Amino acid sequence: MSQLNLHEIIRQQQEQLAAMQVQIQALLAAQGGVGAGGVATGSNMGPHMEVAKPAMFNGEAGRVGGFITACRLYIKIRLRENMVEEQIQWVLTYVQGGSADVWKENVMEELEVGEVEYESVEEFFTILRKEFGGGEEESVKVAELRKLEQGGKTMEEFVQEFKRAARGSGYEGRPLVEEFKRGINGGIRRKLMEAENLLTSIENWYRRATALDRNWRESRREEERLKGKKETMGGASKQEQ
Fold first, then answer.
1. For the chain, what are the domain ranges?
2. Model confidence at 21, in pLDDT bands (50, 70, 90)?
3. Could you tell me which residue, 204 or 14, shows the higher pLDDT?
């Protein structure tokens, strides 16, 4: 066989191999696997993605948040097209053991006889969290609220942080105001306590404290600016002498 014929055969085989690779990639892309160039595509990957299923939930309060998160992720990727009742029934298959068994049986019975209807799986998750995580979650929020201090944060930052911790803590009215007073910096607290019209609602405390803190910070910036200006003028005066 001449060298020319050998080169021609190799060239033809390379072309055939390239054509086969293109066909394979096209087939994989159609199945949602690999696109051109062997790169994974995101179009049709949802139903084929490997998603971890939640661990069995036995009603332990400290695990309810993680259980709901795992269920929510799986439903979003694999069961988002299912009906709400089907999604809830799927969640219930992972509720087993401990104090959760009786609650699960009651819920299944209510669903079967039509005593209760959930508009969304999120509504069901709210009931689940309230049933098994309410007490512990509230105690965690209370502990977080009692540790909060303004420190070097602006009042806007502290108020937002305080609101997040207060949500779900069970604190409201006067007890909530007292916790806020304790957490803000002493100077602002004294000014608000010495005000002619004593504040009563937490919203008024948020608003007045934020205004005072903002004015104080603006005043400090102005003092620093004037101080710098004075030092600059003093330096220039010495140079002239």
1. 3-45, 61-136, 148-240
2. low
3. 204
